[in-house]
Known about the structure:
Elements: H1 2-7, E1 13-16, H2 20-26, H3 38-45, E2 50-53, H4 56-62, E3 65-68, H5 88-100, E4 105-109, H6 117-126, E5 134-138, H7 148-153, E6 158-162, H8 166-179, E7 188-192, H9 193-216, H10 218-224, H11 228-236, H12 257-270, H13 274-301, E8 310-314, H14 329-339, E9 343-347, H15 352-359, E10 365-368, H16 372-376, E11 381-384, H17 396-401, E12 408-411, H18 418-424, E13 427-430
Uridine-5'-diphosphate-glucuronic acid binds at residues 112, 141-145, 204, 207, 211, 245-247, 249, 252-254, 256-257, 318-319.
Amino acid sequence: MAMIAYKCPQYKVTVVDINTERIDQWNSEDLPVYEPGLDGIVREARGRNLFFSADIQRGIKEAEIIFVSVNTPVKEFGAGAGMAADLQYWEKTARQIRDVSDSYKIIVEKSTFPVKTALAMERILTSDSNGVGFDILSNPEFLAEGTAIKDLEYPDRVLIGSRYTQSGLKARDELMEIYANWVPNERIITSNIWSSELSKLVANAFLAQRISSINSFTALCEKSGADITEVARVVGMDSRLGPKFLNASVGFGGSCFKKDILNLVYLCRHYGLEEIADYWESVIGINDYQMGRFVLTMLSAMFNTLAGKRICLFGFAFKANTGDTRESPALNVSKRLIAEKVELVITDPKALNNAMKDLDGIEGKVSYVEDPYEASAHCDAIAVVTEWGLYANLDFKRIYEAMVKPAFIFDGRNILDHKELFEIGFNVFPVGKPPLTHFK
Length: 440
Ligand code: UGA
C-alpha cells in the first residue's frame, strides 16, 4: 500500500488494522518492520496520501477499493489442524465489510488464500448486503522480504484474477489502471480468479521445491567429494533452469513456503489426490530433514556430545535483510541444540528481539549478544544460520583466538571463505562440500 501511495499521489490510501499499537508504530519514526528502503517511501507518502488508522469502519465506508491483507495462519484446531488455512480473520473481515458498506466496492484478495476463497467472500458479501454491489478480485503478492521494495517497484509480474462478467472485468481494469502507473503493461497479467489464487500457491511451491531439490543433494556431495556450489552452477547455466534460488542451505524458512505448501497438500487430500499431496509434502520433509541433519553434523563432528558446550548462532532471521524470524531454520536448530544441552549464544543484527520472544519459555541456557565478536568469544563452535553479508567480512583470526579449541565453524549458508578459515585453524563444515578438518 505504501508503494501504491508513493507511486500514485492521485489516490488516497488508508491502511487500517485492529492492532492500535501497530498503527501507532506506522505513524511514528520507528516502523514496526525492518525492510530496506521502506522507511523512505513511507516518509515520502505518509500524511500526503498515505494514512494509517485504527478506525476500520470509517476506512471501509470511505474506500472504493479494499485490499484485504489479513493473516491466514495454519489452522491450529479442529479439522485440518496443522495443514489447512485458518480463515477466521478473513471471514470476519468479509462480514465487517458487508455490514459497514453503503456503496459499491471492489474487494481485492491480497493475502494468500486457498483456491476458491473468493467464492466464500462473494457469498458472504452478497447475502444480506442491502443491495450494495461488490466485485471480488484476486491480486496475490509475489514480493520477497528483504527485497520487498525492489520487488514492488520492478515486479516480474502483477497478476489480477477476476470473474469474466461485465462488472468483474470492469473492476479488473480499474485495478490494472492503478498498477499501470509504474508497471509496464506487458507485466500486468490477468486470469480467471481461481487460476490467480492457485498460481500464488504453485509459485511458492516451485520456489520451495527448488531449494529442497538442491538441498537434497548436499549430503551426497559431502560424502562423495563433490561440491554443491559447483554442481548448482552447472545446473543453473541451463537456460531452461536459470541460476537463481539454487543456494544450498540449512533449510528454507519464512512465513510462506511451509504454510502455502501445507495448504496445497490439504487441498489435494480434500480432493482425494493423495499422490500429489505426498509429492508436495516431501518438499517440506526434505527441509525438516536438512535442518535436523545440520545439527547431527555438529553432533558427530564435535565428538558425539554437545552437552555443556557453548555454540554461537550467527543469525536468527529466516533470511538476510529482515528481522523476521517466522519459521526460521534458526529456531528449529536452536530447539534441537537446546535439547542436546548446549549453551546457546545468539547474535543477529536485526532479529534479537524476535529471537527472545520465540525462545521465551523454552528451558535451556540461551543468551543474546548483538556483537558477533563478543557473542562467539569462549564458544566451541559457530553455526551460520542466516546469510547476513556482514558475517563474511568479520575478522575470523580475532574470532578464532577468543574461542575454545578445537574451534568449529558450521556454515549453513556457505557464505564464508572456507579455505581461509581452515588456514586460521578452524575445523570447517560447509553445507554440501566435504569438511576441512585438522584431525588426523
Ligand atoms: C517467498 C517468495 O520468494 C515470494 O515470491 C513470495 O511472495 C513470498 O514468499 C510470500 O509468499 O509472501 P520470502 O519467504 O520472503 O518470499 O523469502 P525467500 O527469498 O523466498 O526465502 C525463503 C527462504 O528460503 C529463506 O529462508 C531463504 O534463506 C531460503 N533460501 C532462498 C535458500 O535456502 N536458498 C535459496 O537459494 C533461496
